[in-house]
Write a sequence for this structure.
DNA sequence: GCACCGGCTTGACCTGGATCAGGGCGCGGC
DNA sequence: GCCGCGCCCTGATCCAGGTCAAGCCGGTGC
């Protein structure tokens, strides 16, 4: 895992959430070089390969460059509980800071490339670059809110609609189509994440199709009536 | 709201989560004075009074000194959703950082006294006191995990047991009895927080009582069989 | 081609917890 | 004392979504 191109600003990983920060706030040549030292492009992680496992020592957070990651824990009866999906541009590992061990497993759903950041070095740099500290606080705080979203007592329709709209927005904010999306995860994973049975996801997707809200073909989904879906999910997503 | 006793180290608010940090890490007279400037003791907030409301501009986080705070949001149909309870020593307002507005309401359940910290000033100070930055990162990261706890698909028994054990642990870590506890919130609030109906909470509490797991008298609870309760809640709390 | 396998769908049935309805009890006001 | 009001408890009924069982469909190996 070589350190990345240290002289060439053009090649500085453009999908990393932090590069923009570093460039935007108090950016200068010296600091850019400091950033380079603590960024490491890793991968590819093929489908099914773990990026980290519960209990592993925490040392770095990572931005997804390409592919999709699923995080999950297993309960004492061995059942899996999906905690989240991470798309390109999103940051993984933040919940590990407090206990200095990863509290969950992270596995690649599709071939994944990562931008890995040493967290201790990052924190040190953050004391010198206020914008970076801000960005870290922001990312952490944002995740607190996100985690609570699915905790509410919403019915299955609301959950699934919110899931689709959420994905759509996340893809859209990264420049992908907000209406045609490819689901990188299985129905079972979606169901598990939403705390529903796979059969329920299947049935509701069927109903959404009958009501012309979506078009579904295997893992390709087209959102036909975003307004209605947004409406269904407004209690979950809080606009 | 006067700034607090600036000269006297003995009087420095002992229940504030951050004072300890400041004292532990790179503590010196100058920095202690800096801490004082950004700490403000506020209150009392009588039962039912709001500490902040959804949409209020975010400027400070606060440690609870005494009393209990409930946070909640209201959905578009006006129904309340309880997000959490904050006991003495716990920090409130962290989820507001990312959007610079409070994303929820916070109301006093019993007369509350607060230690209020200007967050911008706090962040600035954190660039000078690495231990403080660490502590902030830790607090934020911790909350990410906490929020996810109740999101799992647990049954009503597991939820209620986890609630009781969780409270017990939190009180214990602040020096209160881990077995005899006073519930500052109503059954309705507990039910709402756990995403159950109040009737369900009542029935399960009844059953726990019949099974000699707890003794219940109005809002006073004694945990009679902690081992069994811990066991019931282990999937939720993950030990 | 065919057989197998894993992911998905569909139907029939069951159940945990919500909902509805009613009643008790402690506390404050008068 | 008595009344009224919140809060809490309890029983009867209902239903969203889970579970069980079976079939489908596309992809892969032979």
């Amino acid at each position: 895992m070589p350190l990345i191109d240290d002289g060439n600003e053009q090649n500085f990983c453009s999908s990393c959430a932090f590069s923009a920060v570093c460039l935007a706030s108090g950016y200068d040549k010296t600091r850019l070089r400091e950033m380079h030292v603590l960024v490491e492009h890793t991968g590819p992680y093929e489908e099914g390969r773990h990026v980290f496992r519960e209990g592993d020592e925490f040392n770095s957070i990572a931005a997804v460059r390409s592919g999709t990651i699923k995080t999950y824990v297993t309960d004492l009866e061995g059942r899996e509980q999906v905690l989240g999906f991470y798309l390109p541009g999103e940051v993984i590992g933040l919940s590990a800071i407090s206990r200095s061990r990863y509290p969950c497993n992270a596995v690649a759903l599709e071939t994944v490339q990562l931008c890995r950041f040493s967290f201790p070095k990052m924190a040190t740099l953050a004391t010198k670059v206020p914008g970076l500290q801000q960005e870290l606080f922001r990312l952490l705080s944002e995740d607190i809110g996100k985690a609570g979203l699915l905790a509410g007592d919403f019915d299955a329709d609301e959950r699934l609609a919110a899931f689709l709209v959420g994905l759509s927005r996340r893809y859209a904010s990264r420049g992908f189509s907000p209406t045609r999306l490819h689901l990188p995860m299985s129905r079972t994973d979606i169901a598990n994440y939403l705390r529903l049975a796979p059969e329920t996801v299947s049935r509701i997707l069927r109903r959404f199709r009958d009501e012309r809200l979506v078009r579904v073909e295997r893992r390709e989904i087209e959102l036909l009536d975003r307004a209605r879906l947004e409406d269904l999910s407004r209690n979950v997503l809080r606009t």
Q: What stands out?
A: The longest strand of chain A covers residues 60-74. Strands of chain A lie at 39-45, 50-52, 60-74, 80-86, 91-92, 105-118, 180-182, 214-217, 220-223. Residues 155-156, 196-197, 199-200, 203, 218 of chain A lie near DNA strand D (CB under 10 Å from a C1').
